[in-house]
Amino acid sequence: MHKKGCSEEELFSFLSSVKENDRAYNKVLSSMCTIPHPVAVRAHNMFIETNLGDPGLFMGTASIEEMLVERLGTLLHHKKACGYSTSGGTESNIQALRIARKLGNSKCPNVVVPESAHFSFDKAADILAMEIRTVPSDDKFRMDAEKIEEKIDKNTVCLVGVAGTTEYGVVDPIEALSDIASDRDIFLHVDAAFGGLVLPFVPHTSKFDFELAGVSSLSVDPHKMGMSTIPAGCLLVRDPSYFHSTEVDTPYLTVQKECTLCGTRPGASVAGALAVLDFLGEEGMAKIVDSCMENTRRIIKGMENAGYPVATMPEVNVASFCCDETPKGWQVSRTRLGHMRTVCMPHVTKDTIDEFLTAIGEM
Ligand code: 0PR
């Protein structure tokens, strides 16, 4: 720290010069986040000082969190789902595994995840000292339903499926997982961090949510396709009693117990998340998702015309291609298998895709 403070003008000219180094979302096809919706920014600024870690002080903001949980629960076929707003998919996945581990009550617990699972499960398993058992993918990059049971034993406390995988945008066989989870009475967590705010607005997609009786918990992130400000994730559980297992006493707060992982938690991005859902409604969300899916079909067709077929047909707006080139000036990413990965988020317009396809050499 400098001994004396600087002028506000000097400070902000410094900050804006540093911000110029940010890539922001220009020619960015690799991000699962996007430019927040203007109503999210407005609501975020309105709730800037709020702390959900002390809900007795911020009862209005806490009621917004409850409304968000209710909106998302209803969307995902469980109006009475219980939940709270996390910092994103990573925290939701850690907490889900933590609950499953406690409920499972095993001395050497393991969790069965698809090969395609997000790396947040590696973090969760490490923190919770759980063994990770990986189910290989089928030829469509989904968890191979035939190979799930062979990984399960008496110490399996959790099964995980992904709805909208990070790398290929596919949905694991959640119905099969749900049947296994129900039959064997194992906790099933669905990571719908990305797909949870896409799949409900796309016709004829695979089932993945609480409509399936075996699904115990779900991650869904408003800071991805929910177009809220960062950080805004959400963990939903089927049965409110699940949260008893993560509760601690909080004697000097305005509430007596807390089941969350973080203590101090932003209310601003939670207000942002609710603002987007209420402002757009189901119709508005469907319109935006539809345009992202249209752009995904456009990029798949264009890449094919250029001689780069899609690795597998996605169910959400993530498409990965058999293509080793990266056009200059564009930000794409690579899957673990080396496919070129693109995400058609709301900031990726039809013109962006056309420009990208011209750069890649579509005929
Ligand atoms: N589960 C799934 C299926 C995800 O795709 C992700 C993130 C997570 C969990 C973890 O979510 P948080 O990062 O919110 O904790 N997937 C993206 C990824 O890791 C996140 C991302 C977003 C990466 C924007 C880059 C970026 O520019 O690829």
UniProtKB/TrEMBL annotation:
Function field: Catalyzes the decarboxylation of L-tyrosine to produce tyramine for methanofuran biosynthesis. Can also catalyze the decarboxylation of L-aspartate to produce beta-alanine for coenzyme A (CoA) biosynthesis.
Enzyme class: lyase
Keywords attached to this entry: Decarboxylase, Lyase, Pyridoxal phosphate
Protein name in UniProt: Probable L-tyrosine/L-aspartate decarboxylase
Entry keyword annotation includes rRNA-binding: no
Phylogenetic classification of the source organism: Archaea, Methanobacteriati, Methanobacteriota, Stenosarchaea group, Methanomicrobia
Gene3D superfamilies for the chain: Aspartate Aminotransferase, domain 1, Type I PLP-dependent aspartate aminotransferase-like (Major domain)
Biological or metabolic pathway of the protein: Cofactor biosynthesis; methanofuran biosynthesis; Cofactor biosynthesis; coenzyme A biosynthesis
Family statement: Belongs to the group II decarboxylase family. MfnA subfamily. Belongs to the group II decarboxylase family. Sphingosine-1-phosphate lyase subfamily.
Cofactor: pyridoxal 5'-phosphate
Catalyzed reaction equations: L-aspartate + H(+) = beta-alanine + CO2; L-tyrosine + H(+) = tyramine + CO2
Provenance organism: Methanochimaera problematica
Taxonomic superkingdom: Archaea
HAMAP family assigned: MfnA_decarbox (MF_01610)
GO molecular function, one term: aspartate 1-decarboxylase activity
Family matches, as NCBIfam families: tyr_de_CO2_Arch (TIGR03812)
Membrane recorded as keyword: no
E.C. designation(s): 4.1.1.11, 4.1.1.25
